[in-house]
Amino acid sequence: MQEKKEKKSFERSGSTRKQIRFDDDLVEAIDIDRSNQAFSEWVKDACWTKLSKTVKND
Question: Helix, strand or coil for residue 40?
Answer without folding.
Answer: helix
